[in-house]
């Protein structure tokens, strides 16, 4: 039984980390003309109006996209200013932040005729929302399990592959399942770019994912973490956001490092970013 709904968390600091990384990876991939199959294994709704009851309940965007948006005129980093321009394009009225776009939107906005996009969503209500979104014709929305769906697609027909695995981690077993899915993808599409998001929680379950990948045989795993606060004494709640990029485009680390250096002060005094290879070539 799925209960997670991303609308409660839309636009939070983890979304900023995830979508800025995704946007930057995609910018690199778009430098070549060869076709890409994009797979979003856990797509969510696609677009989140901030005024909804769900998003207003926790207002997590106030510790995420909101402070950045308000200071957008002061941003100078080219990746950040570019990303903000694209975010502005998602707003019905460009001067006001009323909607936060999810991964299907970030993937969908740069699709070229030669590319494909597969969006998997297993929650019936979330899938209905996703089905109502306006997306390019190359985008297919599939009501089903994302990791199973990904495995049946491999190897893909296009020369390149880019996957986002962004589960809700409602079950502890998902950390191992994600590691297995990454290993299988690497076996079938060795050069595919795979992004995995994971939460930093006091229970530390993400170590299951990280440790499993370390010994899986998958190479070139780059890891970045955006911490909102230090772990400290707290016993619950997400204190940081983690991303793995398998086969990261060359230059991605420096690009994001520069953007995050400008971004983190807007997320609070304790906020910090760190990145390094988890598994090298
Ligand atoms: N990727 C989205 C974004 O960046 O905007 C957010 C996704 S949210 C963290 C996780 C989503 O995965 C939820 O909408 C949930 O219903 C869905 N989900 C949970 N288990 C799933 C599964 N096995 N296959 C596909 N979707 C699943």
TrEMBL record:
Site (Interaction with substrate rRNA): 4
Keyword Ligase carried by entry: no
Cited Pfam families: RsmJ
Enzyme kind, highest EC tier: transferase
This protein's UniProt keywords: Methyltransferase, RNA-binding, rRNA processing, S-adenosyl-L-methionine, Transferase
Active site, per annotation: 166 (proton acceptor)
Domain of life per record: Bacteria
SUPFAM superfamilies: S-adenosyl-L-methionine-dependent methyltransferases
Catalysed conversion reaction: adenosine(2030) in 23S rRNA + S-adenosyl-L-methionine = N(6)-methyladenosine(2030) in 23S rRNA + S-adenosyl-L-homocysteine + H(+)
Binding residues annotated for S-adenosyl-L-methionine, in chain numbering: 19, 42, 103, 121, 145-146, 166
EC numbers: 2.1.1.266
Keyword Protein biosynthesis among record annotations: no
Family label: Belongs to the RlmJ family.
Complex formation: Monomer.
Cited function: Specifically methylates the adenine in position 2030 of 23S rRNA.
Name this polypeptide is given: Ribosomal RNA large subunit methyltransferase J
Organism this protein belongs to: Halomonas colorata
Taxonomic classification: Bacteria, Pseudomonadati, Pseudomonadota, Gammaproteobacteria, Oceanospirillales
């Amino acid at each position: 039984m799925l209960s997670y709904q991303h609308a409660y968390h839309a636009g939070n600091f983890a979304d900023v980390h995830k979508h800025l990384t995704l946007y930057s990876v995609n910018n690199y991939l778009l430098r070549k003309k060869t076709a890409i199959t994009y797979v979003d294994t856990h797509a969510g709704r696609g677009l989140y109006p901030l005024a909804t009851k769900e998003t207003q309940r926790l207002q997590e965007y106030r510790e995420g996209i909101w402070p950045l948006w308000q200071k957008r005129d002061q941003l100078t980093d080219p990746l950040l200013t570019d990303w903000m321009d694209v975010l502005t394009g998602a707003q019905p009225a460009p001067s006001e932040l009323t909607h936060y776009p999810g991964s299907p939107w970030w993937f969908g906005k740069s699709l070229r005729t030669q590319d494909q996009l597969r969006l998997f969503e297993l929650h019936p209500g979330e899938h209905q929302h996703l089905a109502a979104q306006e997306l390019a014709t190359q985008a297919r929305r599939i009501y089903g399990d994302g990791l199973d769906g990904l495995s049946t697609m491999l190897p893909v027909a296009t020369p390149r592959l880019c996957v986002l695995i962004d589960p809700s981690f409602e079950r502890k077993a998902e950390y191992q399942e994600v590691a297995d899915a990454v290993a299988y993808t690497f076996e079938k599409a060795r050069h595919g770019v795979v992004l995995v998001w994971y939460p930093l929680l006091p229970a530390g379950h993400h170590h299951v994912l990280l440790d499993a990948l370390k010994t899986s045989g998958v190479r070139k795993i780059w890891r970045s973490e955006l911490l909102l606060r230090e772990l400290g004494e707290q016993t619950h709640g997400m204190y940081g956001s983690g991303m793995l990029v398998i086969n990261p485009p060359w230059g991605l680390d420096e690009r994001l490092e520069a953007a995050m250096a400008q971004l983190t002060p807007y997320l609070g005094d304790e906020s910090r970013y760190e990145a390094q290879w988890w598994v090298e070539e």
